[in-house]
Amino acid sequence: VTPGDLDGKRIVISAGGTREPLDPVRYLGNRSSGKQGVALAEAAAARGAVVVLVAANLEVPAPEHVELRLVSSAADLERAMNVAAGDADVIIMAAAVADYRPAEVRADKIKKDDTGDTLVLTLVRNPDILAGLAAAKKPGQVVIGFAAETETDPDRLLGLGREKAARKGCDYLVLNRVGWTEGFASERNAVRVLDSRGDIVIEASGSKMSVAERILDLLR
Ligand code: C5P
Question: Ligand 1 atom closest to Cα of 14?
Answer without folding.
Answer: 12
